Amino acid sequence: MKKKLSNQFLVNFLVIFLLTILATVLAFVLLSVASGLIAGSLAKNQYPASAIIKEDYKQIDASVVVQNGGGVQVVDKEYRVVYSSGLDTIGKEMLSAEEFTKFLIESKSKPYNYDILYQPQGEFWLIVTFPTSIRLDFSLVYNKAAAAGDFQRAGWALAFAVLSYLLILALFAFIYSGITAASIIRPLRKLTEGTMLLREGDYSARVDLQLKNEFADLQNTFNDMAARIEHEISLRKKSEEDRRRLILDISHDLKNPMSSIQGYAELLMKKSDLTVHERNEHLEVILNNSKRANRLLTELFELSQMDSPEFSLKLERTDICEYIRQICGELVPQLEREGFEYEFDIMEESVFVMLDNNRFGRIIQNLAHNAVRYNPPGTLVIVSLTVQDSLVVIDFSDNGIGIPAHLADHIFKPFVRVDDSRHSKTGGSGLGLSIAKRIAEAHGGDLTICLSKNKGSTFRITIPRI
Ligand code: ADP
Questions:
Q1: In CA terms, which of 13, 37, 373, 457 is 20 to 30 Å from 129?
Q2: What residue numbers bound the domain in which 274 lies?
Q3: Which ligand 1 atom sits nearest the alpha carbon of residue 407?
Q4: Do 329 and 432 fall into the same domain?
Q5: Quick one: which atom of ligand 1 is closest to the CA of 433?
Q6: How high is the pLDDT of residue 139?
Q7: Looking at 70-120, which runs of residues are DSSP E strands?
Q8: Substitution site in 382, 407, 418 for ligand 1 pocket (most atoms within 8 Å of beta carbon)
């Protein structure tokens, strides 16, 4: 059976209340033991009225009482104060019967300790007074000689009082346990509701307890966890979507060259009366399409290789300035052949980085290849190398047709091309920039596109220097 938190609290509080009563009783017992221990040394017990009373009050010696801070008064049967020495709480020489009775009754509740004795022979009352230091008036008084009926009634009254006291205690414990449990149950319930929403797939569920105690920490942890799950789920959805799109793109991009190869191959087989020229034309189409399919598959293989856990670079300590100068030199014949202009701005001093010489060269080659492929002759290509803090920054820019700003975020994704129709003419796979970016990232750097108002496009490669 499910145990309710409030019942658990109720039991706890009842136990605490009962223990408190027990502790109170124990405290009274200890108090009476302690006062018993000091009783003998108290002035009021050392000098009681019985110790100094005489038949003739004139012979009473009050000096010890007075020396110890007390007082002695003698009241005769006419209620006259016939003798007074030291502390005097009566304050009168003559009392009426009512005043004397009142004095006797109230003597118990005053902060003085009165010891009153009547001397029958001398017909007087001897009153010995000491100031009370500290006194706790709490005692159970009973007398066996009382009437049986009275005993029973008083017993009932006492039982009623004790029972009511216990009931009130239980009621308080009940109310208090309810309130205490509510302060725990309410946030727990909200957290449970949040957890259930998460379980049902609502990852946007968050909890606001409006508390500042430990529950607030739990709430923050819960909300953090929910946010992480939401993030992870959205990443997973995105990667699934990317994977789906990738497969679609691959099949789409392979379909055209493959069907073209198949079509022309069938044609060659069926038509035996083709001229040599026609035959060569068909074979050229087959060759070009198979080259295209092969290039696509090679690039795809390269890209998936870089995603595999076994992928690693062969890093060597390399002077990046010298390395880029060399690559730029290799680009010159191609740029000149295509009628492009160029400018190289590479620092003179040596800057060292950890480089996989083969792979890193692919980045520059891909960028140069794109610049030539997508821009008209006469376009200016600029390669510059600078050092910014701990990074080497290589900017590869051209003043050609540029890449639309809305594609800047996507251009590094596989199969993304600015213009798909242009692609069929140029033969681009849409994988070059993805491969280049992965290589840069594998070196601990990055490849990004810089958006500027200037004509053309600027790609930035960064790599940490050592
Ligand atoms: P592709 O194999 O198609 O060249 P990339 O990933 O290298 O694939 O490039 C993606 C697209 O970005 C290209 O199809 C092209 O539209 C565009 N692009 C890349 N570089 C340039 C450039 N320098 N100038 C203009 N467009 C470019």
A1: 37
A2: 215-305
A3: 12
A4: yes
A5: 6
A6: 72
A7: 71-76, 81-86, 112-119
A8: 418
Protein residue closest via CA to atom 4 of ligand 1: 428
Q: Quick one: which atom of ligand 1 is closest to the CA of 459?
A: 23
Residue environment code for 173-199, b if the CB has 16+ CB neighbours within 10 A, otherwise e? bbeebeebbeeeeebeebbeebeebbe
- In the reported structure, the alpha carbon of residue 412 is separated from the centroid of ligand 1 by a whole-number distance in angstroms of 9
Report the separation in Å between the CA atom of 183 and the middle of ligand 1, taken as the mean of its atom positions: 62
Domain-located, residue 137: no
Which amino acid would we find at residue 182? A
Beta pairing class for 112-119 and 341-346: unpaired
CA of 424 to the centre of ligand 1 (A): 13
Residues 371 and 333 in one domain: yes
What phi and psi, each to the nearest 5 degrees, are found at residue 312?
-145, 155
Residue 11 falls inside a structural domain: no
β-sheet with 380-388: strand ranges across: 341-346, 380-388, 391-398, 457-464, 446-450
Give the residues of the chain that fall short of pLDDT 50: 422-423
* Chosen domain end from 87, 116, 131: 131
| Residue that is written with structure tokens 């009563």 in the block | 21
Question: For residue 425, what pLDDT is reported?
Answer: 54
The CATH number assigned to the domain holding 367 equals 3.30.565.10
Indicate left, alpha or beta for 236 from its phi (over 0: left) and psi (-120 to 50: alpha). Answer: alpha
Q: Are 338 and 455 in a shared domain?
A: yes
Identify the residue whose C-alpha is closest to ligand 1 atom 13: 417
Which pTM value belongs to this model? Answer: 0.58
Predicted local distance difference test score (pLDDT) of residue 108: 85
pLDDT recorded at residue 1: 52
Q: Please count the structural domains in the chain.
A: 3
Report the pLDDT value the prediction gives residue 422, as an integer from 0 to 100.
41
The secondary structure of residue 3, as a DSSP letter, is P
pLDDT at position 427 is 61
Q: Which of 76, 100, 131 is the last residue of a domain?
A: 131
- Using CB distances shorter than 6 Å, the residues near ligand 1 are 366, 370-371, 374-375, 398, 400-401, 403, 411, 417-419, 423, 428-434, 457
